[in-house]
Amino acid sequence: MRFVIVTGMSGAGKSTALKMLEDVGFFCVDNLPTLLIKKFAELCFKANSGIDKVALGIDIRSGKDFNELFEDLKEIKENGLNYEVLFLDSSDEILVKRYKETRRKHPLMGDGRIQDGISMEREILKYVKEKSNYIIDTSNLLTRELKSELNKIFIEDKSYSSLYITVLSFGFKYGIPSDSDLVYDVRFIPNPYYIPELRPKTGEDQIIQDYVMNWDVSQKFLDKLDDMLSFLIPNYIQEGKNQLVISIGCTGGKHRSVTLTNEIFKRLSKYDYSIKKFHRDIDKDKKSKEM
């Protein structure tokens, strides 16, 4: 019997996650009154229930103190009934944007601002997040990427570190990404921009990749960065970090940074990490010329 509690920040994707779990055979219940949760769990765990996978959505609409609610669940676990907690999170900036796009009110904002409701909710859920088995930050996740993460945990039963890594290329002339955790400057590598026949191409083209990686300094940098990340990432996981943005920048974010981002993405993909790459400024040069 697998009993999963799906919770997290309002607007972070809890309802979407429940629908995805339902699609893979989970019996899903959302926003069950808190007075019924303990009884519901006991019924599900009965041998003749006919249910082997349950996902229960709980959020601040429950009307009960979350710490008290989880004390009830602790009692269930002490009776030999195991459960797991999946926590959906997202950055404040993204949550505000989602609420504005859907024109919905945050359940805790009252007559105040959306940000006020988010801050209040984050404080309420702090204890729950600390006790969660899995934390997925949906700030930069596409729907299919969220589905892939859920499949790893609940279908493939892969080990899950709750750390989602984004490797991001950018151009310094367009500004350093504000959500960066680690920033690496690769402007010391010879620039293919100054070779006329290479200028229009990008780091997604093999000819640019060959040019950039043909330099000894590029190979040494990549090896040293790989070694540094192999040390840092396990320590970030142990510390409970759930989102890591590694930003690699060159002048325009088109050639060198794209190539190095692709290379470090390949190396990190060999490990059992949840990882994606994104080239923020790869087309900025082309777009500026079209204007």
TrEMBL record:
Domain of life: Bacteria
Residues reported to bind ATP: G8, M9, S10, G11, A12, G13, K14, S15
Protein name: UPF0042 nucleotide-binding protein
Pfam families per the UniProt record, alphabetical: PapZ_C, RapZ-like_N
Domain RapZ C-terminal: 164-283
Family annotation (PANTHER family): RNASE ADAPTER PROTEIN RAPZ
Protein residues bound to GTP: D59, I60, R61, S62
Gene Ontology MF terms: ATP binding; GTP binding
Residue span(s) of domain RapZ-like N-terminal: 1-156
Keywords on record: ATP-binding, GTP-binding, Nucleotide-binding
Organism from which the protein derives: Natranaerovirga pectinivora
